Amino acid sequence: QVQLVESGGGLVQAGGSLKLSCAASGRTFSSQTMGWFRQPPGKEREFVALISWNGVTTDYADAVKGRFLISRDNAKNTVYLQMNSLKPEDTAVYYCVGGGRIITRVFDYWGQGTQVTVSS
Strands 114-119, 92-101: parallel, antiparallel or unpaired by DSSP? Predict the structure, then answer.
């Protein structure tokens, strides 16, 4: 079992930046594909980004390509999401996910989420 705890959310103006962190428990973190999803208000959850166990492979939703960067530190059991040039449409609850499959973007473990609000 893996537990995921997100932090770093908050309120930011459009054009600003935020960096989300996700601390994972469990000894299998370094072997897992990790990622981020988000759920905008009134909408379904959507894929944001993923990173392979060794950081070699990353994948992003079209809406965030070129603005967001996913990274990980296996020594700290932590995955990050650097969000730049934020837009009001990035407003959502952001979820850290783990135990995923790259091709299907299906993940076994989910955090509780952290709110990101981008004001115009």
Answer: antiparallel
